[in-house]
Amino acid sequence: MGFKDRESALLYYKEYNLKRRTRRVKQARQIALEANETHYFTGNPCKHGHIAKRRVNDRVCMECDSVIKKQYLIDNPEKVAEQKRNGYIKNKAKYLKQKQQYRQENKGKINALVAKRKSYIKQATPAWVGKEELWLITEIYELAALRTKLFGFGWHVDHIIPLQGKLVSGLHVPENMRVIPAIENIKKKNKFEVHNGF
Question: For 126-195, what is the HEC assignment?
Fold first, then answer.
C-alpha cells in the first residue's frame, strides 16, 4: 500500500488500529452463551436454506436437526423402539415418579378422562350382555393385572376393534377383548389392525 508521506501512513494506521480496538457488536451465539441459553437465532439461513434457531453448543440448525431425526425414525424403527424400551427400563422409577406427580397436579384432567372413558365403555356395552359376559370381562381385567405382577411390566386389556375408532367402533364384550403388553396397546392407539381372524 503506497502513501504520499509518513504522516498519511501514520494517520491511516492510527485509524485502522482504533477500528480494531473498537469493541465489536456481540454475536447472537455469544449473547446466548453468556445468558446460559441453549438456543440462539441469527436470522441468517443455514446451508440448507432454513431460517431457524440454532443450538448453542454445536451451532446446528434446529430445522435440519428435525429433518435428520425424522429420517432416522423412518430408517430405523426397530432400533428406535429398542432404545425407547431400554431407556424406560433404565429410568422406570423416574418415569413412574413423574407420572405420579402429573396425576397429583392434574387430578381434574385425569378425572375428566376417566369419566369420558367410562361413558364410552357404557355406550359400547350392549343391553344383551348378561352376568356371564360381565364375569368374563372382570376375569380379563384380572388376567391383565396378574400378568403385570408376574412379568414386571404393564399389560393392558385391548379392544381388538377400538371403542372409539375412526372407521369402525367395536363393542365392550369379551369376544372383542384381549390381554396384550401395554407398549403394544399404546402403539396401536385407536387403530383397527386387520388380523387373519378378521
Answer: CCCCCHHHHHHHHHHHHHHHHHHHHHCCCEEEEECCCCCCCCCCCCCCHHHEEEEEHHHHHHHCCCCCCC
